[in-house]
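#lab-general

N.A. 3:47 PM
ok so I finally got the sequence cleaned up, no stray characters, all 277 residues accounted for. can someone with queue access submit it? mine expired

B.Y. 3:52 PM
send it over

N.A. 3:53 PM
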Amino acid sequence: MLDGPPPELRFRRRFHLGAFLRELWAARELVRTLGERDLRARYKQAALGFSWAVLTPLVYMVVFTVFFQRVADVETGDVPYALFAYLGLLPWTLFSSCVSLGGLSLVSNLSLLNKVYCPREVFPLASAGVAVTDTVAASLVLGILFAVHTYAPRATVVWVPVLLAVQLAFTLGVTLAVSAVVVYLRDLRHLIPIILQVGLFATPVAYGIDAVPGSARWVYALANPLAPVIDGYRRTVLYGTAPDWSLLGLGACSAAVVLVSGYSLFKRLETGFADVA
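B.Y. 4:20 PM
back already:
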């Protein structure tokens, strides 16, 4: 007696990256439309409106400046601590917003998910677009801080696009994986804020990567690619030096693995979204 259908009748999702990316590119207008809808809904009835995108990292910066600078005595050289902390908060805010918004994007769009066919990754990508828009708005404060402290970005800022590419690869990989798993494990919705809160202090946002022992930094960079990325932003924008290429290389390799693995997991779980949701 057979325990299931014969092998030739069993469906197995084959991972064809090229076909998936072509389908996603064809749906780029849908990503933009969903992103605009989410952005309007996010701030439509908020009294402060778009200002909330700026207030969150700004409040964290004030708290870090008051407590970490005075209590922990974080060494930043001749760089004002407010600049040091805010430049770490911007990439972290982008990551946490992408994961928190994108992670719930599928379960928040069940009506569309069950009625309209489209590449399912358009939902977390649209949410990631909202997070990017918020971070761009929050970046304006960085210019104000440079003016207030009469401190100018260094010429090595040209390396920022490389750092941004590593950051986005890691962020999108985590976001895609979390959004897919949340559909099957709804309890993860309650764990995401806790994990992100712990991650804020496990990542060198309020302090420098120098606080991590040298012998453990390569493991740290592999486990948390945001660490060498944030360190790279500070080196290139504030200190006028190149990124630590050894740590950034490890972080880039880890980010690439996370992106490919996260997208692969998403596409393999995608076939069951409508049934489970």
